[in-house]
Amino acid sequence: MSEEIRFVNRLQELKALRDWCSKQRDVPLYIYGPEGCGKTRLLKEFVRKFNNYFGEKAIAIYIDALERVSLEKALLTSKTVEIAKEVIEKFINKFTNKGFGIGRILADAISVILEKALIKRKLKDNYVLVAIDDVTRAIGLDQIEWYVKWLYELLWKLAEEYKPRAINFIVTTSEGQSLDLVSKHRHAHIRLIWNLSKQSFRELFYELKPKKGVNLENTWRLFGGNPGKLVELAKQFEWNLEEMKEHYRKLFHPFVLKLWKEDLIKDLVNVLNDIDIFFSKPSASKGKLQEILIERNLIIYKNMTTIHKIEIPPDPEISVGKYFAWQVPLYRELLREIISESISST
User: Fold this and answer.
1) Tens-place pLDDT, residues 58-71
2) What CATH number has the domain bearing residue 104?
3) Hey, which end of the chain has fewer CB within 10 Å, N or C?
4) Structural element, H or E, at residue 136
């Protein structure tokens, strides 16, 4: 098993989560952001520090909704919390024949965990947190509205029944499509988490021990501070940036062919030049392209307040506009190259 990479910065985000959990909130906190921006690591780090923030009796539980087979990987608790695993395993066994992964079952079993599986812990007068990670991919877009509403109702049921000092739920997703569904209702408070700042990205870059000749400024320009892509470059591609580019270029070729067939290439070229053209010059074809790019997790709507209440300013160097941004600037560069090659070969 590979050693976990040292947690880098995110002090403002940790403080924001601490402030959120310091009192009873009316709705669950729903966090979304670019794929690979560090939502999972931030939540795990916060759960590990929860007792430091709120005392030894505080209870924090992290659920990886995507984990399919391992209870140990699917469930993380704050350091002084013990879980009666035999209770959880008995509950899980009732649902495994339905084809659900363990993480998905646990995401639906919050009340069971809190009511029956905690050892020597009482919810009354305690700070309590349940964090459910990557829930949209686990339950599906068609269920996300129901799930957030169900969480909202469960939050108040547990608060009224067990009288904790504060009980809060945090839900995360990297699926930009879910934002529209959740924002239609009052059952969640939506906040954005963004990629690393340039200083923090630099710290992680050297923490990962780059090979000689790998340029920091170049990787910043291509990844825009995305820690997941930097770790992918280091661990999966062993710092071979050209090999990584070729990998994604091959993945994008069929996608570009699809856009040619749907007569969306001209709109894509315009978006590659100015991602905020979706707002400044909207059209039916651009609207269709916008949906496709969000569905493929290539772009993200970013004109939202972050969890630490700052706005992400436009930054053309890393493909960030006022309203939208490329999830990773590399995607924009490769799409531009593929289209240019296609045009020159015709």
Assistant:
1) 999 999 999 988 99
2) 3.40.50
3) N
4) helix 135-139
pLDDT band of residue 280 (cuts 50, 70, 90) is: confident
Sorted by sequence, the CB contacts under 8 Å of residue 181 that are 6+ apart come out as 141, 144, 145
Domain boundary among 160, 177, 192: 192
Is residue 64 within 8 Å of 133, Cβ to Cβ? yes
Among 53, 74, 69, 70, residue whose Cα is nearest residue 61: 74
Sign of torsion over alpha carbons 252, 322, 14, 7: positive
User: What contacts 100, CB < 8 A, 6 or more positions away?
Assistant: none
Task: Residue count of the chain, please give it.
Answer: 346
In this structure, the answer to whether residues 105 and 251 fall within a common structural domain is no
> How does pLDDT run across 202-240, given as a tens digit for each residue?
999 999 999 999 999 999 999 999 999 999 999 999 999
- From residue 131, alpha-carbon distances to 128, 134, 151, 160, 173 in Å are 10, 10, 11, 20, 11
